[in-house]
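Lecture notes, unit on protein representations.

Consider one protein chain, 149 amino acids long.
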Amino acid sequence: MYDTHYFTIHKTCPCQIENEAVRKTKEIFNKSSCLTDFVAEMQNQQIIGRLISYDKETNTIFIHKRYACECGGGHPQNKTRIGERCHCGHYNHSTAYCPKYYCKCGAEFFRPVFAPLFGEDILIEPYKTVLSGDDECIIAIRINEREAI
């Protein structure tokens, strides 16, 4: 399965974030004076994820994804952490762990939100994943210094 991973083949995620989330994020970004304020307001309005935070030292935004079962997803027959928390319809039936890179597709889900704000060369990657054995999925968005507000 890993050799035919969707992201590896298509360089995009088959799922799409809602246009309303993209619109609200841009609106908040345009009203913010700095990244700390932007991320704080994103968390306050709960636009994306269960938690969103910003590490000023590494210039990285972290998104703690909602569990799939909180969004009406997951794999109901798989009563494991993977089955309950993983959004990936290609893998959430499994009980076996896989490399964190497999979740690059799920990380790219957030590109339509952040690329218009920080540029297409922004690095979006899985930081922690349920599929690799962590308790939750956390996505890291690493922002170039020149792109920061």
